[in-house]
Specification:
Blueprint lengths: L12 H15 L1 H38 L3 H8 L6 H28 L1 H4 L13 H8 L2 H17 L7 H21 L4 H26 L2 H6 L5 H34 L2 H42 L1 H28 L1 H5 L10 H17 L2 H8 L6 H18 L5 H27 L9 H22 L4 H23 L2 H5 L2 H6 L5 H6 L1
Helix pairs in contact: 1-8, 1-12, 2-7, 2-8, 2-11, 2-12, 3-4, 3-7, 3-11, 4-7, 4-11, 7-9, 8-9, 11-12, 11-17, 11-18, 12-13, 12-15, 12-16, 13-15, 13-19, 13-20, 15-18, 16-18, 17-18, 19-20
Length: about 525
């Protein structure tokens, strides 16, 4: 008699926590990017930085359209691959349909750069730079598509920490170093565009070496075209593409809209101010993104074995993200004026936008953890509902609000309304169609205790912001760290804290009973 294959090990909260640790480190490149922004503004001016922000926003939007959803597709198909050949087929499909169209589009944009340049509002002194900047910077498009797909391929293999060196050292820190050197060499704003291309080129080269460790390049060449895995990857990408594009619209379209609404240098400055607000709020968004990256492949593996495992990690992730995101957002929103002081006096105009985005990102973090679960366990047709509703709410709210207040705050408020709607609908869909929801008997206690910590810490940060920025800023950062520790320590159940393993023990997050459980 032939033996039955051993069942795959269960996917538990420990797997989620382990993946989160390395993924948060990988995404700390976003924090490095936030630190770099004041330096870019100081070197190139707010209007010059605004032009860079608008072009990079455009690159991001175009990449999310023409990569055909291939980054998200691999989160669904690679974890369910039965062999290295199938995984290689998924990667080859993603590279072909994700990078290929971006190369074609980049060539077209470079060719028609002179026709596109008049649509951008920039400072008079930067006008001669626009056409060459477009012709040069557009080649970031295929480079960025390659980096996004390559790092997604690592996460699909559940290698969550492989991006750390790429995202922090080679992409962000190297970009800042290049920009400083080119600025010192007298290249001006053009040096920032060159620095971005150089950092992406180095990152793409290193991605190839990483891919060779986790995928068989021999299978990439040998795998038959048109296999079931290749077809599934292609159609999974197309099904997720609209929601990916709309999610990116919420991040980058407001900068483009503000640049189009406000003429001249004001349009570039407004785009720069929104980008500053978005970068600051990305500290909270980082929490959600880390969970999204980890949960998508883990949920796909768990779904293959047992739906109950999906329910367990869904509830655990929602409790943990609530305990972290709520106090973090409360402290940073209350102390936002001190944070904006890093960018100069002009940046304080964006305080309303910053507060709105911090609060919206916190709500999105708690609600939006359902989206990666929906993407891997539900039918393809369910992917579009939240995206369409979110963008309609954003457009409707923005149209009603803009005109009754300044453009920056109005556009941001409309975007925030759409974000919250887009995050909440997948949670409802999972509850109604898949009978999955994260609100078990432990969630209410976590929400109440975490909310109390957030309220007290936010009030303390509001008082601290009255100090000079040099004293207020480190105090606000310490308050944010203390609030997260208190929330995790006293809001989460024992088992959740125990899942944090050695990190939880080193941070003294576990009570006396947990050492026995360990």
């Amino acid at each position: 008699m032939s033996e039955e294959p051993a069942p795959a090990p269960a996917v538990t909260s420990r797997h989620v926590a382990k993946g989160l640790g390395t993924t948060v480190l990988a995404r700390l490149g976003a924090v490095v990017e936030i630190v770099a922004q004041p330096l870019y503004v100081a070197m190139f001016g707010l209007a010059g930085y605004g032009l860079y922000a608008v072009l990079w926003a455009a690159i991001n939007l175009i990449e999310n359209i023409f990569d055909l959803g291939m980054t998200s597709a691999m989160q669904r198909t690679v974890p369910q691959s039965a062999s290295d050949a199938e995984a290689a087929a998924a990667l080859r499909t993603a590279m072909l349909f994700g990078v290929g169209p971006c190369l074609v589009v980049a060539g077209g944009i470079a060719l028609f750069a002179a026709d596109l340049a008049p649509f951008l509002n920039v400072a008079t002194r930067d006008r001669p730079l626009v056409v060459p900047a477009i012709q040069l910077f557009v080649w970031a498009l295929p480079l960025w598509a390659f980096v996004e797909i390559a790092t997604s391929a690592m996460r699909a293999r559940m290698v969550f920490g492989a991006e750390i060196r790429l995202r922090i050292v080679w992409e962000q820190i190297l970009r800042l170093v290049f920009a400083g050197l080119f600025f010192a060499g007298g290249l001006g704003l053009k040096g920032l565009f060159i620095a971005h291309i150089c950092s992406l080129a180095v990152t793409a080269f290193l991605c190839v070496r990483l891919l060779a460790r986790y995928y068989s390049f021999a299978e990439l060449r040998r795998a038959p075209r048109g296999s079931a895995t290749a077809k599934n990857t292609f159609w999974a990408g197309l099904s997720i593409l609209p929601s990916n594009v709309i999610a990116r619209l919420f991040g980058d379209a407001p900068a483009l809209i503000l640049n189009l609404l406000i003429p001249g240098a004001g349009g570039a400055a407004a785009a720069g101010l929104f980008t500053i607000a978005r970068k600051l709020s990305s500290v909270v968004q980082l929490v959600r993104i880390a969970f999204v990256y980890v949960l998508a492949p883990l949920a796909a593996s768990a779904e293959r074995a047992d739906r109950a495992q999906v329910a367990a990690i869904y509830a655990y992730a929602t409790r943990l993200i609530s305990a972290v995101a709520l106090p973090l957002a409360a402290v940073l929103a209350a102390g936002s004026s001190s944070l904006l002081g890093l960018f100069g006096a002009e940046a304080h105009v964006a305080q309303g936008a910053v507060i709105i985005l911090f609060l919206a990102r916190a709500a999105e973090a708690v609600l939006g953890i359902s989206q990666p679960i929906l993407q891997v366990v539900a039918a393809f047709r369910h992917q579009l509902t939240a995206s369409i509703a979110g963008v309609l709410v954003a457009i409707g709210a923005g149209s009603l609000i803009v005109g009754h207040m300044d453009a920056l705050t109005g556009v941001t408020l409309g975007m925030a309304a759409g974000l919250i709607v887009m995050a909440g609908i997948p949670m409802l869909q999972l509850a109604l169609t898949e009978k999955l929801h994260p609100f078990d008997g432990q969630f209410l206690s976590v929400a109440l205790r975490g909310g109390l910590v957030a309220l007290v810490a936010g009030l303390l940060a509001f008082v601290a912001r009255r100090l000079p920025d040099a004293a207020a800023l480190p105090l606000i950062i310490l308050l944010a760290m203390a609030a997260i520790w208190l929330s995790v320590r006293f809001a989460l159940p024992d088992a959740d804290r125990a899942s944090l393993g050695s990190v939880g023990r080193r941070l003294r997050l576990q009570g006396g009973t947990l050492s026995e459980a360990s």
